[in-house]
């Protein structure tokens, strides 16, 4: 039988989506028909298709992703779960074919018994994979339903260059340490300069490469890395001090827990951790709507940070509030409604206003 003549190629780029899908279906139908024809003519030796499937599974590129890739691989597992006991007996010599048939017939009962158990086990494993894949897809669907848009990098507040109100307190807290001190999200390296001037062996990391350009120009030891990625490769108890600031304030809860675990384990005994953060009140009233809505987390109260660090063996030694203080002044007693007004002002100050930032210093005791 002569091979079927393929249809002339069609310029699919100019087709509408519906016509393009119809054309693809026609091509796939022609391929299926050609495969059936070659099977019937004997052009495809027994076991060749299975061998090709196994090779495809081993060497195929990751062209599909997610559920499609998972289901495609699972289908190949299902197809490989069956073991064929019909051993080929074809031979170039007649006596060879006869001997092979004789051996296959003589060993058939024995091989069949073994294969039956293997196939039973393979199908049990395949069914287990189906259960696992279903469970994974359910988990993926649950996670996707909770996913929120990412905060654009351009919207992340950039640290202000130059000295800050808390730089002196940070230098004082770290001036006596004997070892390396890490400044996470060091920006242009202004605090690093102050630490080094105070005799501290300090270096910094920052995820934004452009931000550390001025620090590199001044010859400071800075790296373009995230604090979590950097701490992952630092040895336990290798740091004598650490300064955490910047986006650690609005990390996702899971990432914040990871940061606490890494930071506390990388600090040596008696090592100092300096943490700068905005207060939740100033975050609510001072951040842009885009940052407030899309940030993966929110700044914590100083008491909450003290609690989290205490669970990992760090004791809070210093807590200083600073930054912009937007608290309202109380009215004088000459006002007839002074008591009521001042009570309202106290509530507003407590819930919404107050100091804009705080600096917390903790020492690792165990």
Short structural summary:
By secondary structure, this protein is an alpha/beta fold. Helix content is 50%, strand content 14%. Strands 3-2-1-4-5-7-6 form a 7-stranded mixed beta sheet.
How is the secondary structure organized here?
Elements: H1 17-41, H2 48-59, H3 66-80, H4 94-146, H5 167-174, E1 180-184, H6 190-197, E2 201-205, H7 213-217, E3 222-223, H8 227-232, E4 239-244, H9 253-266, E5 267-278, H10 280-286, H11 289-294, H12 302-311, E6 314-325, H13 338-351, E7 355-364
Parallel strand pairs: 1-2, 1-4, 2-3, 4-5
Antiparallel strand pairs: 5-7, 6-7
Helix pairs in contact: 2-3, 3-4
Number of strands: 7
- Element-by-element helix/strand order: HHHHHEHEHEHEHEHHHEHE
Query: Roughly what fraction of the amino acids lie in strands?
Result: 5-15%
The biggest beta sheet is recorded as: 7 strands, mixed
Shape: elongated
CATH class of the largest domain: Alpha Beta
Number of domains: 2
